[in-house]
């Protein structure tokens, strides 16, 4: 599965468009990370736990999108976009979407 | 009275450690920017001469929080309006760090350039009580390498 965020796949021709595919996941922090974040709140700096959490979640959302694309017979996803929104205090939704295509 | 002392201690701690962390972070950003200089990044979406290339999605992200002192200063700034320089430097650090991590991911995949760079900023803890002034920046783009 080839994933790009441009309209084409470099070096390949798109022969068929299969429409929009998307994947999402909602994650929330756990208490341990929250305590660390509280400390960082005073000293400043990177919140490593959150960085990891969001990286994992984004990978998960991308994975779900790819799964959906595979299910409809695509072999590439182009024009992928990510978006983040906070649904409730302490929980964030990670969303990935793109166009499923067949290339050769 | 104790509250006031605690507040001043937190302010001092935030100032001392926050400034030191920021200085160190900027130093490391500048160093790594030098070593990753050969990976070119474009926000242009059309890749010239793409026949011999293959593309892979790469991304980098970071969550950074401001210190207590800067948040206090920003709160004061809120009263009169104007430039909130303490948040400006926070976002600059986050953005440069995210781009660096994306470049690093591109290098690990053997790519030489990244096209169609997109940056997205989200504030974590929006609307929460005792909100942490933390932002997440994610940078992503299509890395290209020679077809094998």
From TrEMBL, chain A:
Q: Name one Pfam family in it.
A: YbjQ_1
Name the InterPro entries for this protein.
Answer: UPF0145_dom_sf, UPF0145_YbjQ-like
Per the record, the similarity remark reads:
Belongs to the UPF0145 family.
Under PANTHER family, the record lists: UPF0145 PROTEIN SCO3412, UPF0145 PROTEIN YBJQ
HAMAP family xref list = UPF0145 (MF_00338)
Q: What is this protein called?
A: UPF0145 protein AADV58_12250
Q: Which organism is it from?
A: Azonexus hydrophilus
Higher taxonomy: Bacteria, Pseudomonadati, Pseudomonadota, Betaproteobacteria, Rhodocyclales
């Amino acid at each position: 599965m080839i994933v790009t965020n441009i309209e084409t796949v470099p070096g390949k021709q798109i022969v068929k468009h299969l429409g929009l595919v998307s994947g999402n996941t909602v994650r929330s922090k756990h208490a341990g990370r929250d305590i660390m974040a509280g400390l960082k709140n005073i000293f400043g700096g990177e919140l490593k736990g959150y960085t990891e959490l969001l990286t994992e979640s984004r990978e998960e959302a991308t994975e779900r999108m790819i799964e959906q694309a595979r299910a409809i017979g695509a072999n590439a996803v182009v024009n992928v976009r990510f978006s983040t929104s906070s649904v409730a205090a302490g929980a964030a939704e990670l969303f990935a979407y793109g166009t499923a295509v067949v290339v050769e | 009275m104790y509250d006031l002392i605690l507040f001043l201690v937190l302010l001092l701690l935030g100032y001392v450690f926050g400034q030191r962390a920021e200085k160190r972070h900027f130093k490391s950003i500048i160093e790594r920017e030098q070593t990753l200089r050969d990976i070119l990044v474009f926000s242009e979406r059309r890749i010239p001469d793409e026949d011999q290339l293959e593309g892979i999605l790469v991304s980098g992200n970071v969550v950074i929080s401001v210190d207590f002192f800067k948040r206090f200063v920003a709160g004061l700034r809120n009263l009169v309006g104007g430039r909130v320089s303490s948040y400006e430097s926070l976002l600059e650090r986050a953005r440069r760090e995210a781009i660096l991590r994306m470049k690093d991911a591109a290098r690990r995949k053997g790519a030489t350039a990244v096209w169609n760079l997109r940056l997205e900023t989200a504030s974590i803890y929006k609307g929460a009580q005792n909100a942490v002034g933390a932002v997440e920046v994610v940078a992503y783009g299509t890395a290209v390498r020679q077809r094998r």
